[in-house]
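Honest question from a wet-lab person: if I give you the sequences of every part of a complex, can you actually get the arrangement of the whole thing, not just the pieces? Trying it with mine:
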Amino acid sequence: MARRRRQSAARAENQGTDYTQLTHGFPRAEVFSTDQVEAIHGESLRVLEELGIRILNDEAREMLRAAGCEIRDDMMVHLPADLVEAEIARAPRRFTWHGATGFSVDVAPDTLIFGPGAGCPNATDLDRGRRPGTLADLVELLKIQEGFDILQKIGPMVEAQDVPVNTRHVELTRIQLENSRKIPFVFARGSGQTEQALEMIRIARGVDMETFRNTAYASTVVNTNSPRQIDVPMAQGIIDFARWGQVCVITPFCLAGAMAPITTAGALMLSHAEALAGIALSQIARPGAPVIYGAFSSNVDMKSGAPVFGTPEHIHANLGAGQLARRIGLPWRSGSGTASNAPDVQGAMETQAATWGAVLGGANLIYHAAGWLEGGLTISYEKLITDLEICQTIARAMEPVEATPEAIGFDAVAEVPPGGHFFAATQTMNRYATQFYEPLTSDWSNFGQWHDAGAVDTTKRAHALWKEALRTFTPPPMDVARKEELAAYAAARIAEGGAVVVD
Amino acid sequence: MARRRRQSAARAENQGTDYTQLTHGFPRAEVFSTDQVEAIHGESLRVLEELGIRILNDEAREMLRAAGCEIRDDMMVHLPADLVEAEIARAPRRFTWHGATGFSVDVAPDTLIFGPGAGCPNATDLDRGRRPGTLADLVELLKIQEGFDILQKIGPMVEAQDVPVNTRHVELTRIQLENSRKIPFVFARGSGQTEQALEMIRIARGVDMETFRNTAYASTVVNTNSPRQIDVPMAQGIIDFARWGQVCVITPFCLAGAMAPITTAGALMLSHAEALAGIALSQIARPGAPVIYGAFSSNVDMKSGAPVFGTPEHIHANLGAGQLARRIGLPWRSGSGTASNAPDVQGAMETQAATWGAVLGGANLIYHAAGWLEGGLTISYEKLITDLEICQTIARAMEPVEATPEAIGFDAVAEVPPGGHFFAATQTMNRYATQFYEPLTSDWSNFGQWHDAGAVDTTKRAHALWKEALRTFTPPPMDVARKEELAAYAAARIAEGGAVVVD
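Yes, you can. This is the full assembly:
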């Protein structure tokens, strides 16, 4: 990390930013005092101990019982506060996440990872409009994102609804490995699916089982069924990923006013309780298993009950969630997003506001940072690109600024007469090619030029950009033997019907 | 201030936010170490002392000479560092800015004021397209903004190009006073124009000359002619506004790579030097005169030389400028904006990024926070509205979050069974009407509803909103006698041909 940070400083004000490893550069903003954080943490523990959390998975309940929890009526698990504190203390504070050869990213208190919008049932683009997602859409989206290092994490940007659910995990894993160097995602939809998908990742990475089980290569997200419930596949996912040594991102989706109290503090208190229960379960399953504390809390539109994003309440939740994550010392995951139905100004505004909230909350992993529409029901090809502009802008703005005597530039000022210009100054000539950020989608021509060139708006420019990214896509190299082994494994699993989805 | 802050806390998480007095709620982000700030400040002083600044105004040069500066060839004024330090120390750290009766806003280290886009030669809206600005456009824009308290400062949102320049200041002042309670703007285009405009404001506020000269009621912006030059009317503006006790916002517009060094540190060093020279002049003209330290530094597109905004460099400049402002202890003014040619996604993205940079830089006054397009060449009626959504979102996000036991909500969590919902919980019912921010332009209906209602995009919704604001505009009350006096004074000035523009 230290080495990389130094490289980053050397690249300051240099167009050649390495986006693959980002370090936070803004101070963390806070909404709670230290006492208030303690109070919320304490009430979360009290919820787990006194009210309990309903865990529908038999194995999980049994493990928690054996660890010292009390099980009462209707699968309610009551977790003693000291047990929870002891278990979360076992989770690693930092780890390195490995992609294909040559690609890795550190997860640590001061690092930041962006992931694209994921889990969307629909896809949309300017050519083809909005439609149910297919495997072909997902392949396209994976190829497009691969050209942008600012996304270090990948995932199911759209649901491949044309693939049977019992083999979808095989296809999803295969196309992630074939089209990307980055950290892949596996749905926790039953132990059978998890095992097959993780085995594919192990094959692709070319490591033995022992190494795989002790190195972070994959991720899943476990969403609790707020309030106070974890269902069968989600609890199984926590257990399985812990045993496999893979990263479980335990993320209550606590929307204030709907599945959680209407207040920011209340929504976070519930979210925190559920995350702590999940993390405790993971550490009981395997002490030291890598987990990420998830908190994706926003609010709902009280008129319709629909989730909304990029609101002041979403920002508040991000700032508070960061404080709770730092209280327990674990890396944490947030979510960006928008409820907009179109890749328009609302979509751009809400997603950026949400992303700033997550960044200022010190999130270490921000999912849905690009492309999400309709609160996650649709992924937009064009919005994927325009949102990356914001991720890149923030990444560059987090880099150090030079303030050497040469940069402060007394000599440059002395060189230019009053009322003159610096276009040809020595300092400018030495630096102009790499000094400034070059945008992806922004058009900085003047109105006349822009108008005469067809008055193309940002979304249409983004359209051209994703097409270009698709055209220029080159698959990441993979050892031929591994590739064949992976194909054979995938074909065999599909031939035998994949694995059953547990729900 | 303290009283207002307490009110604000009581309004936390309450839809009824009072936007008229904002208090910073995010930590200041920094790009320089304390030593680096000292180094930049020191080099700025060295520029003023060793290289000098060219001041084209005879009176200003004479005042500076009399104060101890050395004048060399070609109107170059060399300001001794100790003189500059002594003069800037006289400027007030805080003051209250008064609008119409009942409207005032505190300028202090922790307060924030938003102003709309200003100075644009053109106006555009979806009905009428882009055209040269007129007085009628400006009246419309002033009426529209008056419905939104999130703008506390007003100004010449568009240039009334259909009004002769020698009487334009009379019309500009008159329509600001007739249509708004907020703090008006006066162009510094010669002492005659300044005197007439300020006299109109004095009449409208109903105060005697002594009171007027000792209370902040008006503002101007002085842009230096970077690098290292202050022209005749700008220097005169500094002197006149100081003598009148009105607020001079001294703002070098130092675009890195064009009128300033290409580095952030260098552009800010030059900007700082020019601002210090202007502030020193103001304090020599009248010790204790209210001034605002301006720093509107961004970069240019190195391909075209065009100013750009919302870039990582613009963010860096805002963070560094804030540090320099705090070094000298004065309130400071930044600028938001975009180079976009349309009120589209680029416009929304760049303006929001620029605004976050200014907010995180701790700016006390952010001009061009809403409506600017094309780097200030055009103001968009629709973008005015959509940008206000971001200002309001940030304002709400800066408010405190409740963390009382009731807000943390153990009882609310206890009330809802696992897997249930909080829509009908007691806490929800007590709070739902006012808990969440209600957006101006965001449409949170689902895709089907939105599509069936015509798939109206954000910009079109903003169009409807400004029309509604125009329809519902009510002029602020003004005492009849003052109104008549104001009208008579304006008519007399216009009849005699106004006052000559100095340039």
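Two things worth pointing out. Chain B touches chain A through 127 residues (CB under 8 Å). Residues 1-14 of chain B have pLDDT under 50 and may be disordered.
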